[in-house]
Amino acid sequence: MRVLLISLLLALATAVGAAGTAMQEFDDPALRARYQALTAQLRCVVCLNSNIAESGAPLAEDMRHLVAARIRAGYSDAEIKDILVERYGTFVLYDPPFSMATWLLWLGPAALLLVGLSIALMVIYRNRRTVAEPAVRVDHERVARLLEESDSAEEHRS
Amino acid sequence: MRWQQIVPITVVVLLIALLGYGLTREPGKLPSALIGKALPEFNLPALDTDAPRLTSQAIAGQVMLVNVWASWCVPCRVEHPQITRIALAADTPIIGINYKDTRPAARQWLNQLGNPFTRIAYDEDGQLAFDLGVSGVPESFIVDEDGVIRHKIVGPITPEIMTEEVLPLLQRLQQEAT
After folding, report:
1. Residues B65 and B166: beta-carbon distance below 8 Å
2. Considering only alpha carbons, which residue of chain B is nearest residue A90?
3. Residue B114 · residue B82 · CB < 8 Å
């Protein structure tokens, strides 16, 4: 009974979610493609990490309406993004421009990769040097002396 | 300890410090894009159907608090006593933006809790709220004499925010203006 209830609620939840993200209607397939691309690149500002195409939040719905209306009115993608950035800041873009606030975001991964690579190279270089050195330092004088001793011992026996 | 041991420990400690600092931040709070910019132009009907329309020109030229609210918004109810206290304490108008509401519900809310607003615009489809970059209600803006947005409060104005941010800034702006 409980399982049935839970699955029913889940089904209802998906239905509600789907209703929230109802597609805007476009006759022109080119406009529809632009709409889909744009809404996928714009962040829903109230839902922490989902784009406005997928979000069921009322504000995302408003933003989708706005994007659709501006596309129909002949605005370019850049102009539509500018309108949203003016109001919500670059936070609204999933592909934020390089700036004072975002340099760490853009350069961080590359910097971390460089640090990792240099550590890896250091470790490899160090290991190669230790392998090149003999595991046991050979005391040539002592070897010669021991050999001599054993030779003389053998001579002595014979 | 050899440096080979010290380095990883230092890195881990720094990482923990960084992540711990991250926990104290609120990622849901947007840095406002509108601070330092002019209040957007608007022309909206008043909540009171008998009152004249509210325009940006009509309210320009004075220090004010602009408060976006709705009768269906629970935190607005929490915030209401502070708005009332600001109305009494500060000598500045409070402009209410009634956001995606219905007139009867908004009126009933004001009758029940009191009306601290100097004037209220009725933003039925949320156009002005969108121009203000509002992501939820309540949100409040402190506007200076030149019509420039100087401060934004996301979420309800708590008693602390009121005494530490809102009232001092309103007072300072008022002094600058005179």
Report:
1. yes
2. B33
3. no
State ipTM.
Answer: 0.71
Count the neighbouring beta carbons within 10 Å of the beta carbon of residue A72.
14
Largest CA distance in chain B: 81
Q: Mind telling me how many Å the CA of B33 is from chain A's nearest CA?
A: 5
In the CATH hierarchy, which top-level class contains the domain A2-92?
mainly alpha
The structural domains of chain A, with segments of one domain joined by +, span 2-92, 103-157
Tokens describing residue B5: 């041991």
Is the CB of B33 less than 8 angstroms away from the CB of A59?
no
CA distances from A145 to A32, A151, A153, A156 (A): 91, 10, 12, 16
How far A46 CA sits from the closest chain B CA (Å)?
6
Residues 7-36 of chain B with CB under 8 A from chain A are 27-28, 30-34
**Tens digits of per-residue pLDDT, A112-153?**
999 999 999 999 988 887 666 666 777 888 888 999 888 887
Chain A residues with CB inside 8 Å of B135's CB? 45-46, 59, 88
The low-confidence residues of chain A, meaning pLDDT below 50, are 15-21
CB contact under 8 A, A88 and B33: yes
Distance from CA of A91 to the nearest CA of B (A): 7
pLDDT in tens, B105-128: 999 999 999 999 999 999 998 889
Q: Are B141 and B151 in contact (CB under 8 A)?
A: yes
Q: Look up the pTM and report it.
A: 0.70
